[in-house]
Amino acid sequence: MKIMMCGSKEGLARDLDLEINIIKEKLGEDTEIVIFEYSGTEKEELKKEIATVDGVLISLVDLDSDIIREMKQCKVISVQATGYNYVDLDVCKENKIGLTAIDEYCTQEVADHCMAMLLSVARKIKFYNNDIEVNKNYAYNSTSGLIRLEGATLAIMGFGKIGKAVAKRAQGFGLNVIVYSPSCTQDVAKAHGCTLVTPDEIYAQADFIALTMRLTAQNENIINAESIAKMKKCPVIVNVARGALIDDDALIDGLDKGVIFGAGLDVLKEETAEYASKFINRDDILLTPHTAFYSDTSQYEAQKISVDNLIYMLTGEYEKVCKIILDVQKR
Q: Is the pTM for the entire model greater than 0.90?
């Protein structure tokens, strides 16, 4: 049996021995394991190598239709993340390749990170730090407009596990929480001490907006020039979900015009230092490099769950798989 561990340079910068040892233990010492670092430019080499694998474990790489069509022998792709929008599902189905993902491994970390960004922007932590380090100015009143959290309104767009965890933390700070989620009911929202509202109600009422929703064709660029123009309370916007939820040019324009107080962005449309440069040298934007998920504990669980998913699909122990996205194998 042949297994490929495919990832970007960043995605493979982990203790790979954890997965390798589990694969060898469960599938046999003679299992061939190929580690392929993919930046997007080695497509032909990847297509050739991936054609003979039985399973693929992927981390932070796109598998497009051209690559998946070469995977004639593959039985499963295991995604080391909760999101899988960078895998072509239609072609997986054509080639009878199963797809699995992680259902739960970093909810606590992402919710904590969301609140950390919200607090940092609201309290202008970046401004004060730069004022001391760069300007050598040690004065509390060198800026103004800081926001009191207690009694303010946080709008959470997306009310799954992470959205609910953010709400729980926010309520501890005395924030009123309103939520928008097409799949949520008012009863569910109320059970968590929140009120279900429409996007327009969010734009009218929110002092803070947290994006925790899964990216879909319907919500891409949900924060755009039109929605920003409806924002009445100069909110802080925090995105710990997907970069494509925000029209970046519209966001910067809203910040420049004072319609938006500040932004905390853990995700961008293009997650490179070059693309991030459009947001730097601003005290009203706080950036982190898609690190909301990260802790030693979450990293371990992501590796363990995804490799277990791969093995269970290959050994036919489907009931043990954490999350099956596409099940095309005969039982």
A: no
C-alpha span between 164 and 46 (Å, rounded): 40
What pLDDT is stored for residue 238 in this prediction? Answer: 98
CB-based contacts of 304: which residues, under 8 Å, 6+ apart?
18, 22
Give me the pLDDT at residue 103, please. 85
Q: Do the beta carbons of residue 227 and residue 200 sit within 8 Å?
A: no
Which residues have a catalytic role annotated? 242, 271, 290
**What is the Cα–Cα distance from 65 to 91, expressed in whole angstroms?**
6
CB atoms within 10 A of CB 144: 6
Residue 226: CB atoms within 10 A of its CB come to: 11
pLDDT (0 to 100) of residue 320: 95
Find out whether 142 and 164 touch, Cβ atoms under 8 Å.
no
pLDDT of residue 83: 81
pLDDT at position 329 is 66
Cα 244 off chain centre by: 11
CATH architecture designation of domain 107-287: 3-Layer(aba) Sandwich (3.40)
Q: Which residues of the chain have pLDDT under 70?
A: 329-331
DSSP states of 196-215: E--HHHHHHH-SEEEE-PPP
Which segments within the chain are labelled E, that is strand? Answer: 2-7, 32-37, 55-59, 76-79, 98-100, 153-157, 176-180, 195-196, 208-211, 236-239, 262-265, 285-287, 324-326
pLDDT per position as a tens digit, 41-52: 999 999 999 999
CB atoms within 10 A of CB 330: 5
DSSP string, 263-325: EEES--SS-SHHHHGGG-S-TTEEE-SS-TT--HHHHHHHHHHHHHHHHHHHHT-GGG-S-EE
Residue 240 near residue 117, CB atoms below 8 Å? yes
Q: Classify domain 2-105+295-326 by CATH architecture.
A: 3-Layer(aba) Sandwich (3.40)
Please, where in the chain does CATH 3.40.50.720 lie? 2-105+295-326, 107-287
- Report the amino acid identity of residue 72: K
pLDDT of the residue at 331: 39
- In this prediction, residue 278 carries a pLDDT of 95
